[in-house]
């Protein structure tokens, strides 16, 4: 597959973009990465995602696909050769989709909310919700992983990609807020899984380094302060 | 012998979508109607995380979230395809469903439910969003082409429920003048022999929506 055939519009620091990069890498698909500034949307983005005007956008032979979960599933469908990202069993697939939706709709948004929260009470309320969510995800790991290393079993799968891509900002949030969110005692399975994921070569290649993200976070905070 | 049960609510569009999918595939199922203001222990057992309908139970295994359930139904049973087979078309269908549920319906509901400036803003937003659907349906009988597909099934709120809401409050948002193609699709949709069997009666919906205006009613609301 020629590199020109597959393009990804995104930015290095966005976990939704990282998901797509992970999927492309796992399938050994070559692509051109086009860095898009999330604060100043480019023409190519608006042309390819006129409805939502958001990254990531995958452009495959001039056809755009939008929304990270949809893109990851598309990559799995369109490139059937290579490791499957979604499970082969229909019920397991339903569980994978359920937990991906849960992560996106209920759990991950709390991380940014925590960073932006003001006041001890507000922070504590969000931390409690995050902790509850992690316990649910710990159970999900037991059910979906079936005792193996990843949610996808022996190999990295859909939930590993979706939840794994959140680990970079999770770590930065822990540092910035001064709290341990993912811990060995409350969610041992998940904590071990997270260590496995961040030391995996594919994830190491794609997920941004904590140091770089922290610098970006500080830049964003400074920008917000200077414009208020 | 497979056993299929559906926990639903007769006036929930999400629940009705799953019923449409099951019927399209000719699946026999036991239907359990939930009182959403007093959810059954079984529902809470099978969907402890969201505690919502619909929940499908297949051979004792529960699945929640209508879009997840519909894809499961499409993959498990023979019969007409609900999602397109082509990977790109599938991605587009999933995109429109997400757009409908997370953007369009939310703005439309707010335009109906929230008074004052916020409601007006929501109405403007909804008016812009509906233009994308108007463009998408141009020249097509259904979003799925010749036959009802995933997007048509998932657009039931816009196709039917919203029309009733509009009338109740005299909201002029989804009109023939502004959205001729979309309204043509609506006419075809609600009169389609298969679809109309899966729409709750208008007079009963009127009662539900009027009750929604009363405090303490915890019935259907889209994700707001």
Produce the secondary structure layout.
The complex is a heterodimer of chains A (228) and B (224).
Chain A: E1 6-10, H1 15-26, E2 32-35, H2 43-48, E3 57-60, E4 63-66, H3 68-78, H4 90-107, H5 109-116, H6 120-145, H7 158-164, H8 167-177, H9 188-198, H10 201-206, H11 210-226
Parallel strand pairs in A: 1-2
Antiparallel strand pairs in A: 1-3, 3-4
Chain B: E1 4-8, H1 13-24, E2 30-33, H2 41-46, E3 55-58, E4 61-64, H3 66-76, H4 87-113, H5 116-137, H6 150-154, H7 156-169, H8 180-191, H9 193-196, H10 202-212
Parallel strand pairs in B: 1-2
Antiparallel strand pairs in B: 1-3, 3-4
Helix pairs in contact in B: 1-3, 4-5, 4-7, 5-8, 7-10
InterPro entries (chain B): Glutathione-S-Trfase_C-like (IPR010987), Glutathione-S-Trfase_C_sf (IPR036282), Glutathione_S-Trfase (IPR040079), Glutathione_S-Trfase_N (IPR004045), GST_C (IPR004046), GST_C_Tau (IPR045074), Omega/Tau-like (IPR045073), Thioredoxin-like_sf (IPR036249)
Protein name (chain B): glutathione transferase
Enzyme class (chain B): transferase
